[in-house]
Amino acid sequence: MKKIIAAGIFGLSLAASGLAYAEPVKIGVITTLSGGGAGLGVDMRDAFALAMKQSGNKDVELVVEDDAQKPEIAVQLAEKMIQSDKVDLLTGIIWSNLAMAVVPNAVAQDVIYLSPNAGPSALAGAKCNKNYFNVAYQNDNFHEAMGQYANKDYKKTFILAPNYPAGKDSLTGFKRYYKGELAGEVYTQVGQTDYAAEIAQIRDSGADSVFFFLPGGMGISFMKQYAQSGVNIPVMGPGFSFDQDILPAVGDAALGVKNSASWSKDLDNEANKQFVEAFQAEYKRLPSVYAAQSWDTANLILSALGKASVKDKDAFRAALKAADFKSVRGGFTFNTNNHPVQNIYVREVIKEGDVLTNKIVATAFEHHKDAYADQCKM
Amino acid sequence: MSIALLLEQLLNGLQLGVMLFLMAAGLTLIFGVMGLINLAHGSLYMIGAFACAAVAAATGSFWIGLAASLVAAAAAGAIIEVTVIRRLYDRDHLDQVLATFALILIFSEGTRWLFGSFPLYLDIPPLLQGAVPLPGGGQYQLYRLAIIGVGVVVALGLYVLISRTRLGMRIRAGESDREMIAALGVDIRTLYTVVFALGAALAGLAGALVGALQSVQVGMGEPALILAFVVIVIGGIGSIKGALLGAILVGVVDTMGRFLLPKALALMIPAAQAGPIGAALASMLIYIVMALILAFRPSGLFATQS
Which residues cross the membrane (chain B) (predicted)? Predict the structure, then answer.
């Protein structure tokens, strides 16, 4: 009962502020709902839809389509949504390579795109755009936080990432703040499932720690194989490989691992409590960082809709930029390049009863800005 | 670089090869006997992994899960053979590729419908947990050694089955002249179903064994399928012996390439560039090997007459 009342009050407060401009708004959501990466897109879509539902705003219509994690499909969907569905806003893309394929083209047609995940460095720097708002992070951020945190305990780290743009952003981010020596730097194949050859090199390297960025199923494979290999060097990584969608499949091998993220379910603020409770009640599972970012994206849109008409682009962009919403991450503002200024935390994987989850153990950065904002001429 | 590291990498290559052999053996058998290109072989691998994970989670025993994976994959193989594949033997390869590609989509979305979009958990059984010491001071994961053992047993078993039993005789006869063996009164339809189910069971076994090492998720079969095709093309389509040697060649070349190429490049160019370039070259290496072998032996190492 308490839950329902809380949700009701939450919804009413948003609805009250949303009454100013009662006009139909169409939001296109392109995300990954099939294939190996579907877990991430499903969390994104579910959180977004729930936030819209709870707001009680009847004027918002969602057009949700599956990109199957393929850039060419995402491009077609974006064209269809802009040309024939005539959406007012676009959002939803999980992967950086898809974002790079869709975003520059969409924003050039004066469509506003809000990123609930993916933050490739190019779009934060030279190719930034007034129509592109990143509500998640710039790709380097989580890795920078881990590099900063590693300085405390480690002197010789072995680093590992897939050989694609986000993988290179990752290791670049880590090295930007890490002061120790590197025991090795290895790029793996995207989609690789067996890490025996890399683990053998880690064993031989004399490293005192391992940093890896392997999103999705790659991270599950790596952690399971690492746990059984007899190598006992501590591992760490960005939160993607230790998030709620991944942990059940990794199992106890993940216990105690330090990882970095802008959000955790135990983050102590009112908006976050409501979010975690509402998400669990609706979907019977714990939300991931993708769900949290997507929830924030939805609420950012709702806050702007309360202030300006979506048809008045200049006023609407200004309303978005004000970021006048209750973020589940606590403090949230936009930098000059429309990317977040936010805290990045270090979390540790723990067990609550039978459920593996994360708790915050340190704050790596406060009000962290990305390294590319200076290159953005907006 | 120590001897222990080199030995460990060789074992890694062998283990990858053995896993590929389990996939490739079924694929090459089905192609050799029935002339069918089965893209859905990767789906059978996925079915094996999901059956093992689901049953192991329900019963708490990896071994019951492993048995279930064999049964589930063989059953799925037999069912699609009877309902779909049987209609494709007389069609050309393009129709077969289209129909079995459709099966991939059906199995992938069906599995998602049953198990959801999130990866399943499957762990190594307690008996095979941990690592064992290697000569030279290294260590090696026990479970990977066990996979190598399973591969050797399966290879021997297939050898005996094909060269020493009546079923094997029929399989060989079906490979060389299917009209004649049908004319001699052998029930060719049942033989095809049995061979298909056998190949499916081997794929399911590979899926279950590998599922404990990596992520059990929708779409896990397709990367393995691509490598298995490389293996049978190198080994000679239809040849079990070729599949075994091709698989081990691909496994060792891929592992050693990933390990040695970035190191070799680092001697010539700055280390910061050697990493990504070496990794990119290593991912091409098995295809380069395949191209070289096909240049000199266009029908593979152990081509069967066709």
Answer: 16-37, 44-64, 70-89, 101-122, 142-162, 190-213, 225-253, 274-296
